[in-house]
Here is the input.
Amino acid sequence: MFKFINSIVAEMRLVTWPTGSEAVKDFGMVIQYSIFFMVFIVIFDWLVKSGVTQAVKLLVPMIK
Here is the structure.
């Protein structure tokens, strides 16, 4: 068990950790991408909802 933990610690020492400014930059990019995809999904959802609503309005009179 100790050999396993020691190998984990040794591997973690080999990792190149980001600097504070790199972490802040990466965090900003994550926020930007999240906002972009949120806006994209909201617009897509609105278009689909509008399309389905219009399709139902057109099809209901045909059924009666």
In short: The longest helix spans residues 20-63. The chain has a mean pLDDT of 92.
